[in-house]
Write a structure and sequence with these properties.
The structure is a single chain. This protein folds into three domains: about 1-50, no CATH class; about 65-120, no CATH class; about 145-285, no CATH class. The chain contains 14 helices and no strands. Helices cover about 75% and strands about 0% of the residues. By secondary structure, it is mainly α. It has helices at about 1-5, 15-30, 35-50, 65-75, 80-95, 100-120, 125-140, 145-160, 160-170, 175-195, 200-215, 220-235, 245-255, 260-285. The relative contact order is 0.07.
Length: about 280
């Protein structure tokens, strides 16, 4: 926020700083705000985004020749910190359960950062500078996971699942279990594409389709639940709404097309979705 205000080259720097200030305020003081104030903050951020009033500031990007030389020198060792992050997160979550999953991710992030400093020996200030640059590159898309997860809870409380059930009952032939299975898996993928979050889609689609059309007809709940959620993940591979999976990597890699990751994943995602339908039909009944 402060850097955007101080950067004379940043377009719309006042509104850009306002967006990041509102976002920071909701994370820091949100639990203490009246709910209507938090809702107003979300609406204000949506308005700033809709009218394209949030712009990236200028960042200190290394020259292409310097980046190429560093890549040639470091090679595949750049994958060590992210792999260490994942491995240490599993270990911390497994052996230090009292910390909880979120704290385990935080601890593993610190471990990975220390490993990156030991391996690559950058200037300490780069940790903050590159974090800011990455946030600028991703932009407002970076907060989609939190917004969409909250939207899923709102949809469930509002009874969207019941509305979906009413619509699906008019489409699925009575007693056709394969059709019900296909509709459930496809709906999970499509709703995940809309929500950008498989967990948000799971509660709505399972209430609306999974329980009345599969589990109530004798399907194994464990199979329906497990394969239903991973069917939703097939949708995650095909949507820009899953920003942390599909847009963030493109920003990190600085690809020419920000949808490169999605286009690469699309054929496999469709194939896996078809496999999910077949597996659920034969394993659940």
């Amino acid at each position: 926020m402060a850097q955007a205000l101080k950067d004379p080259t940043c377009e719309k720097r006042i509104t850009t700083a306002a967006f990041w200030f509102i976002l920071a305020a909701t994370f820091i003081a949100g639990p203490y705000f009246p709910r209507w104030i938090t809702g107003l903050c979300v609406v204000l951020m949506a308005i700033l985004t809709a009218f394209k009033r949030v712009a990236p500031r200028s960042s200190d990007v290394p020259a292409a020749a310097k980046t190429r030389a560093a890549a040639d020198r470091l090679g595949y060792s750049v994958f060590i910190p992210p792999l260490l992050l994942a491995f240490s997160a599993v270990l911390v979550a497994t052996f230090f359960k009292s910390l909880g999953a979120n704290n385990a991710i935080g601890v593993s992030g610190v471990i990975a950062l220390i490993a990156a400093f030991l391996l690559f020996r950058p200037k300490p200030v780069y940790a903050a500078k590159d974090c800011t640059r990455l946030t600028d590159n991703v932009g407002v898309t970076g907060i989609l996971p939190q917004v969409l997860a909250a939207l899923g809870a709102v949809f469930t409380a509002a009874g969207v699942g019941d509305v979906i059930a009413a619509g699906v009952s008019a489409v699925i032939p009575s007693g056709n279990l394969f059709a019900a299975t296909a509709v459930y898996c496809i709906a999970m993928a499509v709703f995940t594409m809309i929500m950008g979050n498989g967990f948000a889609a799971f509660s709505v689609i399972t209430v609306g389709i999974g329980i009345p059309f599969l589990i109530a007809q004798g399907a194994d709940p464990a199979v329906v639940g497990a394969l239903g959620l991973t069917a939703g993940y097939c949708g995650t591979l095909m949507t820009p709404m899953a920003a942390n999976f599909n847009i963030l990597p493109a920003a990190v890699l600085e690809t020419k097309n920000k949808y490169t990751v999605i286009l690469s994943q699309l054929p496999m995602a469709l194939f896996m979705l078809a496999i999910h339908i077949v597996l659920m039909y034969f394993l659940a009944f």
